[in-house]
Write a structure and sequence with these properties.
Radius of gyration: 26 Å
CATH superfamily of the largest domain: MetI-like
Number of helices: 12
CATH topology of the largest domain: MetI-like fold
Structural class: mainly alpha
Strand content: under 5%
CATH class of the largest domain: Mainly Alpha
Number of domains: 2
Length: about 300
């Protein structure tokens, strides 16, 4: 009499074959991750403890590169510029994107067409956007000063002013990425339940009260996601700033990314540039942990 067939997981050699299959799929992925991410990062940390300029012999200096960064006024100013730019480039699109989402969530004629037009800026490449805005920012021939003259306002220097250059660059970011925030918030609005609104309206709640006590708390998780995405984009912003201002006038708009670029590819100071990368990574990691903590504390509907 034939013995009953064993289930597949209990057949002889099954576990060994499955283990070999794991290795077959996992090892190539680990090799790629190690070659693309882990090795370059470890090599960057290794270079950061050397005084190494392209074309010269590398000399081990330990933590000297980091100590110099701590007292480097230009680098410290680049950190301030980075956070100033990031703060404005996150808060303003969140406010305007939420307002646009609330508007486009309502029913009105040609809503679909207008929504499509509103999302068009984020489809353009950053360099193309930067070139267009560079012409618009021109003090004499730019269209922005012409528009100011139509309403009786004096012309502005825009990116040619040390005090206005970062807000002007933020204006480009707001125009470019507010549609992305709008789409995220629109998705959140579409997922909101209708029962709380119906009950609140029966109790005589105003539109502001509906938004303050129902819409905004329920949208908070979606706003956190939008804030995380915008923070990542703003921190790594380079092409728009470089094309429009090259970090100027002077160093008024020089962010960490531009300072890093100059150290590595203009001054060929590889050791110092590597130290900047490590410090920037620590800053981003700390900020990411804060944002993830806020996101975990935000309750989802």
């Amino acid at each position: 009499m034939n013995s009953p067939a064993l289930p597949i997981p209990y057949r002889p050699g099954f576990l060994a074959r499955r283990r070999r299959a794991y290795y077959f799929f996992a090892v190539p992925a680990l090799v790629v991750v190690g070659a693309v991410i882990i090795f370059p990062w470890l090599f960057t940390v290794w270079m950061s403890v050397f005084d190494w300029r392209i074309g010269s012999v590398a000399h081990f200096v330990g933590l000297e590169n980091y100590i110099k960064l701590a007292t480097n006024q230009r680098f410290l100013e680049s950190i301030v510029h980075t956070f100033y730019f990031t703060l404005l480039a996150v808060i303003l699109p969140l406010i305007l994107g939420t307002a646009a989402a609330l508007i486009f969530h309502r029913e009105f004629p040609f809503r679909g067409v207008l929504r499509g037009i509103f999302t068009m800026p984020m489809m353009a490449t950053p360099v193309a956007v930067a070139l267009v805005w560079t012409m618009m920012f021109h003090p004499q021939q730019g269209v922005l000063n012409y528009l100011l003259s139509l309403v009786g306002l004096p012309p502005s220097l825009w990116v040619y002013s040390q005090t206005l250059v970062i807000p002007s660059l933020v204006l480009v970011e707001v125009w470019h990425w507010t549609p992305l925030v709008m789409l995220i918030v629109l998705g959140g609005l579409a997922a909101l339940p209708t029962e709380p609104y119906e009950s609140a309206k029966l109790d005589g709640a105003t539109e502001w009260q509906l938004f303050r006590y129902i819409t905004f708390p329920l949208l908070a998780p979606f706003l956190i996601v939008a804030a995380v995405i915008r923070t990542i984009d703003a921190l790594k912003a380079f092409d728009t700033i470089y094309v429009i201002s090259q970090g100027g006038p002077g160093t008024a708009s020089e962010t960490i990314n531009l300072y890093l670029y100059l150290q590595a590819f203009a001054f060929y100071n590889v050791g110092n540039a590597s130290a900047v990368v490590v410090v920037f990574f620590i800053i981003i990691l700390a900020l990411a942990l804060v944002l993830l903590h806020v996101r975990e504390k935000t309750k989802w509907i």
